[in-house]
Write a structure and sequence with these properties.
mainly alpha, two-stranded antiparallel sheet, single chain
Length: about 375
């Protein structure tokens, strides 16, 4: 009984991490139909934001509660990046899933390299280029005849802005040298230390404690679920999101600003990814590859649960999390001792990578039987 309870609570904590990571993806992929391969990098941004907030508040009276500020900051930063991604890339690729997948995958590679290379010199160059090019573009776009000379403007301002940015960044780099050109994070992982009140554990059964960090993530996941449910079902913008999901053309005819709805949906899904990254940073080191470790699992949760179904994501995350933990920890080994063959099989898969392989094979078999997932969509959306 002790082993079973330990497996249950251990699997539940893993399921909460998976669900929190998949919640934002369920909003973007489920409600908008966008395959966002940069979702993992939004989690990575939330994790690095947590690291920065921790260092900023270190030695201050707010140090013990820095995680609360980090959650809010991670949500805001990831939401802003999500809005930029939606307006700059995804908006032009709606209804073209393959192109969206490739474009967001390219964005994920750019973000990974950016986090490895970002320094004061590179950050200054990005800000300066944005002010020169996009600021000028915004100023001239207010003119009524802008479309007549748009091509000429882009052909002239793009190289001029790039040249000025390169000259200023290079000059600052030669002047200030190492402190200005040294990467902020580099390729090595960074560590986030949990606050003192999140250390230790809660005794569940004799010989097993549920770590407070895991318990905090479980409660955070529950709070995010309730918040998403309330927003989608009890607010005006939530109603608009569900209307656009059901029938975009009819919603536009009724006066719903579909482009604003798309941006808001993407911002919420991205912000939840940032919150997931903040939570995951309490469990392991933060590196530029953090998001890739969870991307496949989060897609599996959304697909197995049923696209666009929050209850399906909850059930799928719970099942996948429990299976991963039980198989990797060989928790069923004592119960299978009556059969040497079954014992050998359980011991063969008793590791993290092999447990993922076994669970993935089960998911493939499950999707052969129920290709639409546990809770398939019904009604007008499916008919379309």
């Amino acid at each position: 009984m002790t082993a079973i309870l330990e497996s249950f609570f251990g699997g539940l904590s893993i399921a909460s991490v998976l669900l929190l990571a998949a919640l934002g993806l369920a909003i973007v992929f489920g409600l908008m139909g966008v395959i966002n391969m940069a979702h993992g990098e939004l989690m990575m941004l939330g994790a690095y934001t947590t690291f920065v907030v921790q260092n900023v508040l270190k030695g201050t009276p707010l140090e013990s509660v820095y995680i609360l500020f980090a959650l809010v900051t991670a949500f805001i930063m990831a939401s802003l990046l999500g809005i930029i991604l939606e307006r700059g890339v995804v908006r032009y690729l709606y209804g073209r899933p393959l192109e969206t997948l490739l474009a967001t995958w390219g964005v994920s590679l750019i973000l990974q390299q950016l986090i490895r290379s970002i320094s004061w010199q590179l950050a200054t160059g990005i800000v300066l280029f944005s002010l020169l090019f996009f600021g000028t573009l915004w100023f001239f776009s207010r003119r009524g005849d802008f479309e007549r000379f748009r091509g000429w403007f882009l052909g002239v301002m793009l190289p001029i802005s790039a040249a000025i940015t390169w000259f200023v960044s290079d000059l600052l780099g030669k002047t200030h040298k190492m402190p200005f050109t040294r990467p902020w994070f580099g390729t090595q992982g960074v560590d986030v230390t949990a606050p003192s009140w999140l250390r230790g554990g809660v005794p569940i059964v004799p010989g097993y404690q549920l770590p407070l960090t895991r318990l905090f993530i479980i409660l955070l996941t529950a709070a995010c679920l309730l918040g998403v449910y309330w927003f989608l079902n009890k607010t005006v913008w939530g109603l608009r999101i569900r209307a656009v999901t059901q029938n975009r053309n009819m919603s536009a005819c009724l006066g719903i600003p579909t482009q604003k709805v798309d941006a808001l949906t993407f911002a919420i899904g991205s912000g939840l990814a940032g919150v997931a990254g903040c939570a995951v940073s309490l469990l392991s080191s933060v590196s530029s590859n953090l998001g890739q470790q969870y991307l496949v699992d989060t897609f599996m949760v959304v697909v197995v649960g049923g696209v666009g179904k929050l209850i399906g994501s909850i059930a799928a995350a719970t099942g996948i999390g429990l299976l991963n933990y039980v198989i990797a920890a060989n928790a069923l080994g004592p119960l299978l001792s009556f059969s040497p063959a079954l014992t050998a099989i359980s011991e063969f898969f008793a590791s993290g990578p092999m447990a993922k392989v076994f669970v993935f094979a089960l998911i493939v078999l499950f999707l052969q039987i129920r290709p639409a997932g546990l809770f398939p969509q019904k009604g007008r959306t499916v008919d379309a």
